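Students often ask why we bother predicting the structure of a whole assembly rather than each chain alone. The short answer is interfaces. A chain on its own may look different once its partners are present, and contacts between molecules only exist in the joint model. In this exercise we take two input lines together and write out one structure for the complete complex. Read the inputs first and try to guess which parts will touch.
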Amino acid sequence: MKILGEIYAKFTDFLDAKKKIVIPVLYLVLILVPFLFKSQYFLRVLCLIGIYAILTMSLNLIAGYMGQTSMGHAALYCLGGYFSGLLGSKLGWPFWITLIFGIIGGAIGGLVLGIATMRLSGSYLAVITLAFGEVVEMIILNFNSVTNGPLGVRNIPRPSLFGWEFTTSNGGFYWLMLVLVTIAVLVSLAVLKSKFGRAVIAIKEDELAAKLMGVNTAKYRVQTIILSGAMAGMAGAFYASMNRYIDANSFNFDISMTILCIVIFGGLGSIPGMIVGSILLISFPEVLRALADYRFVVYGLLLILMMRFRPQGLMGGLSKKPYKLPRGVTLPKALQARKEGSKGKQVG
Amino acid sequence: MALLKVNEITKVFGGLIAVEDVSFEVNQGEIVSIIGPNGAGKTTIFNMLTGVYKVNKGTVEFEGKEIQNKAPREIVKAGMARTFQNIRLFPTMRVIENVLVGDHINIQYNFLDLLFRTKKFRKAEKEAAQKAIDLLESLELGDQINNYAKNLPYGMQRKLEIARAIATNAKLIILDEPAAGMNPQESEELMKFILKLRQNGHTILLIEHDMSVVMNISDRIYVIDHGRKIAEGLPAEIARDAQVIRAYLGSGGVEKDAEQDA
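Now the answer. The structure tokens for the assembled complex follow.
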């Protein structure tokens, strides 16, 4: 028990005291959801929210941290789905292996896109990523011998563990989604709070200055897009297995736009923003089904109002908390005094 | 041996010769200034030194090794870091993060280390943070570490930019017009600051317009006009140099004075 406690303490090092309690409780509640709500529809919507949370965290690496626009992010999602789906459907490989190949597929897509856009930014980059999305879609549609073209890929196997098959209604996919979202959050956090993250944000802030501080900007640009591709590929593999059928339409331009909308709506650069944004914007059309087609009008209005009154997004903007220093670092004298002063006040 | 030795470097933009056969050197522990009227080619020289522009002709030797036309990061690794004429901090990053980006090339761990938060990672991050804090404290920015760079007053932004350059462990700090946009009081403070940097063992190459700054702190001065070096020497010599006065004030006044004398 004590060892477990220590391990937990090590991995939650970045959390403050309050979060150390809130987050386990939150997870406990989340894990119990399938026992409380058995509706397949409801669990499927939750899984979709999870997929978009991963996709937006993936785009957040490029758009939020690195400050570049990707208008073809669904292409990376698509590559993950097709790599994983085809291996599962045609060769009958188990999900856990095709998941890894889905991640690799997304990463390869990221590598190609990264090299193609290494020295581009702004509108040029947006156009290239848009074209990349279209190229991937065209390849999927026309490379019949491998991808089945417009017919799509059917009978993609579901994951199973010790003989228990995951389905949407037994909560298996929901729990798997929780694990994958957690991985995406941890990877995003790990990257953000390191020299990698600082370099990538420095590229967003001032690429020339970053370069002249010795940051290998080209390398970090490509690595970020590869990492982003791997995350999107993971979401793709999950979607393929959950839906059991994919075709080029599952990953079209609309998906790219939805991802981009959520990232901006949630707040560029904010990990909680990606999750809250996905929850709101994915559940929104479902909640408002009664409005039929008018719900997209409301959806559009919501986005416009958001841009007008909170352009930094729901959770975006600069944190007002002090910078989190590694443990054991001696603070500057001026701040030490201030800290002791506040402690003294609390005691008094 | 000189720390930095520049031999007859030339930069041509299309048909325009921006810098022609300029040579100078900087020795360990010196404050050397490059001055000249607007458009003389001073910033072009800095951009060639730091790898932003390619050198068309000539060599740049740093500690005896040729570094011209290398990638900017190779030059930073060799030990030369710069600031910019118009401040180029990372505005929405914290003060300490700005310094940590400067320290980037000295922080050693790979992607797996950062993903799994290994011992190596934690040790390197801790050392880097401590180094950044100590550096900021020594430059009197210790109480600002949590602030965002864009929220700092102008003078502090200049200091932070210098701190970021020092964090690279550079042996030579190149300052591009640090006193630009400062009032006399701020320039005075900056001057003291630069002298303090020298005391701490830094070697400084400076481009500056503000004559009071240049004349007071430089060990040696090079004067550039129309892309060519027109004078070099001690501050007192430069102040008397007829060619320099002509470059700065034009020849009309001098000739008229001469006529009146005659």
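Check your guess against this: Chain B touches chain A through 48 residues (CB under 8 Å).
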